[in-house]
Amino acid sequence: MTQRRLFALSGHWLDRGLSLVCLALGAGVLMIAKGYPTSAGALPMILGWLLMGCGIGLWLFPGKRADMRNVRIGGLLWGMAVFVAVLWLFASLGADVALFVLFVGCAVLSGYPPGLRLVATALLFVILVGAIFGGLLGVPLPGPVFALFSA
């Protein structure tokens, strides 16, 4: 029954809805990126324009109805739960904790086995993002780990 509902949402109207989300997100990223210096705002500007381009492409060239029979509802719900948790963690604890949870959640949902190697990789990912944004670009990101890299 749920698969029939997903099937009805796929295709033309889903692509139009996603295109509006991409356009709004791209416009938001572009507006926020204008507040940073040119060196720090270059990557967000590129990402904002890419999101806008994806939104225009989805609006102009919507896809056909997709076969949603093989979509696992449990994985879809876990993915949405991870997304909501990452947004809440970003707002309450900081970007470093949220990026750690995002990395681990995406890896586990993609089939990577949880374990010490995954935790170590996620920690190195968070440290690398903090070093690039805080150390090299001078963009302070919120969070206890990122505070170590901001000047």
UniProtKB/TrEMBL annotation:
Coiled coil: none annotated. Residues 19-142 form the DUF1468 domain. This is DUF1468 domain-containing protein. The chain crosses the membrane at residues 20-36, 42-61, 73-91, 97-115, 122-141. Signal peptide: none annotated. Keywords: Membrane, Transmembrane, Transmembrane helix. It comes from Halomonas salipaludis. It holds the Pfam family TctB.
